[in-house]
Design brief:
Layout: E1 11-12, E2 17-18, E3 22-24, H1 36-47, E4 52-59, H2 60-63, H3 66-70, H4 73-81, E5 85-91, E6 102-103, E7 111-112, H5 115-134, E8 139-144, H6 149-154, H7 169-172, H8 174-186, E9 192-197, H9 206-219, E10 223-226, H10 239-245, E11 252-255, H11 262-270, E12 276-278, H12 281-285, H13 289-294, H14 312-317, H15 332-340
Parallel strand pairs: 3-4, 3-12, 4-5, 5-8, 6-7, 8-9, 9-10, 10-11, 11-12
Antiparallel strand pairs: 1-2
Helix pairs in contact: 1-4, 1-15, 5-8
Length: 341
């Protein structure tokens, strides 16, 4: 454990009790929620030693239905039994109740969402969070990154509104903050609220993101998920995450390329640029990556070679993801079927 003393050290936020600093970030799997393939996908990575799993992005309209959230309970219970915490990422794809495409402002064929629609979305986020908590989730994460609907409200390029939800930087924060406050009011005090944010985007930069991070913390966010966390291929790893960490006192998750080099993960933690490290494709390739690090078996880790064939490639085809380097990845459920035969 000495080689990765920080990466493998526990973290207790008071709401999340994690056995290590390794986070499986939200990655769309194209697997049926509650089905055997998805169930064993997550459970296998919990058994492999991951500290925190953030379930893939799920529409608030889906998970606001109690029956949908209930389908996750078996997986959540099994992940907990394996010693891993489980949270769910919630997102809004930008659709009105009738299916019409909506956006912060009239742009690119989408119409501007009305204030009434936004207020209804805030309620759906809160209902979704409550359903996740009722199913056993340790927390929830609004997806406010990567140019999706919620992130566009923070962008002055996409958000040219003149009402309470747009205009100044403070009003462009308003939707995200209302969602966090609504979630915080809906769930019990033991439920963690995470928030994923892209620190530099269309029309905004680090200064506005620092102010937003502070406002999110004041609104009740317990963990800030910074994605991406690095400004360029040549910059110090997690330089953006480090800049936001300086603005808040809550734990910060750094995202981007750490599965390729766990030594960099240890270094980022040692230098105080993050508190938690997200490893995505590394855990697609080898579900036992955390366990192998803890056992001093780094050389036996099945490595991601960034071929993008069965992760992003399958995702683009709408079929369950896997890994060219590990034929068992995505097929973990077959072992369970064999046991039942």
């Amino acid at each position: 454990m000495t080689a990765y003393a920080r990466l493998l050290s526990p973290l207790d936020t008071g709401k999340l009790r994690l056995r290590n600093r390794i986070v499986m970030p939200p990655m769309v799997t194209c697997m049926d929620a509650g089905g055997g393939q998805a169930h064993w996908w997550y459970v296998a990575r919990a058994l492999g030693g991951t500290g925190l799993i953030i379930r893939e992005a799920t529409s608030i309209r889906d998970i606001a239905e109690p029956a949908f959230a209930a389908k996750l309970k078996r997986t959540i219970d099994a992940v907990h039994e394996a010693g891993c915490a489980f949270t769910a990422q919630l997102y809004e794809p930008g659709r009105a109740s009738d299916g019409e495409t909506i956006a912060p402002s009239d742009r690119d064929g989408a119409r501007a969402a009305t204030e009434a629609e936004l207020e209804e979305m805030v309620k759906l986020w809160a209902a979704s969070a409550l359903n996740c908590r009722s199913a056993g989730c340790d927390g929830v994460e609004p997806h406010g990154a990567h140019g999706f609907f919620l992130n566009r409200f923070f962008s002055p390029v996409h958000n040219t509104r003149t009402d309470a939800f747009g205009g100044s930087a403070e009003r462009r924060m308003e939707l995200g903050l209302r969602i966090v406050r609504a979630i915080r009011a809906a769930v019990d005090d033991g439920c963690a609220v995470l928030y994923r944010h892209t620190p530099v985007g269309e029309g905004y930069g680090l200064d506005e993101s620092r102010a937003f991070a502070q406002a999110l913390q004041e609104a009740g966010v317990d963990v800030l998920d910074v994605s991406p966390s690095t400004s360029s291929d040549t910059a110090p790893r997690a330089d953006w995450a480090g800049a936001l960490k300086q603005a808040v006192s809550i734990p910060v998750i750094a995202v981007g390329g750490f599965g390729l080099d766990p030594d960099e993960a240890e270094r980022v933690l040692a230098e105080g640029r993050a508190d938690l490290i997200a490893i995505g494709r590394g855990l697609i390739a080898d579900r036992e990556l955390p366990m192998k690090l803890s056992e001093g078996k780094k050389d036996s880790i099945i490595r991601c070679i960034v071929c993008n064939e069965k992760c992003f490639g399958n995702l683009s085809k709408g079929i369950p993801i896997g890994c060219t380097q590990n034929p068992e990845s995505g097929q973990e459920y077959l072992a369970d079927l064999a046991r039942q035969a």
